Design the sequence.
């Protein structure tokens, strides 16, 4: 059995239900500006690893495997969490300037026009996926 991506607040329920299956965590942003909302899960810095390790170890203790979707929101970034309304979150309110491959807005309302990434910017995002998706030394994160 595989469970769809879930938030960290639902992990205890998912860990018990999955038994010998697979529990996928919600999308984890590989860069801070790659988050969809300010409250999104992230894996862009090593300080995120201890809590993610705790989650993985709990799920493993229930007999399940763990996985994580790596993500970058691009032109959908800096929007409100679905639990806190909808629409753009401005930098003054904890949001940020979205970045994407082009300066094309996702929708005419509730989204910012993203800053277009140049070649170096796109390369940096690709590198963030590579770095955060690479196998970790044993004992670091333990997603399996």
Sequence:
């Amino acid at each position: 059995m595989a469970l769809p991506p879930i938030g960290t607040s639902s992990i205890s329920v998912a860990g018990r239900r999955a038994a010998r299956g697979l529990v996928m965590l919600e999308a984890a942003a590989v860069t801070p500006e790659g988050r969809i909302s300010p409250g999104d899960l992230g894996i862009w810095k090593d300080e995120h690893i201890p809590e993610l390790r705790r989650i993985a170890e709990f799920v493993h203790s229930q007999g399940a495997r763990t996985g994580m979707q790596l993500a970058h929101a691009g032109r959908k970034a800096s929007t409100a969490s679905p639990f806190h309304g909808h629409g753009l979150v401005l930098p003054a309110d904890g949001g940020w300037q979205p970045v994407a491959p082009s300066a094309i807005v996702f929708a005419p309302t509730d989204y910012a026009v993203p800053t277009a990434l140049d070649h170096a910017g796109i390369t940096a995002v690709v590198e963030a996926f590579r770095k955060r998706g690479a196998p970790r030394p044993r004992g670091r994160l333990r997603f399996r």
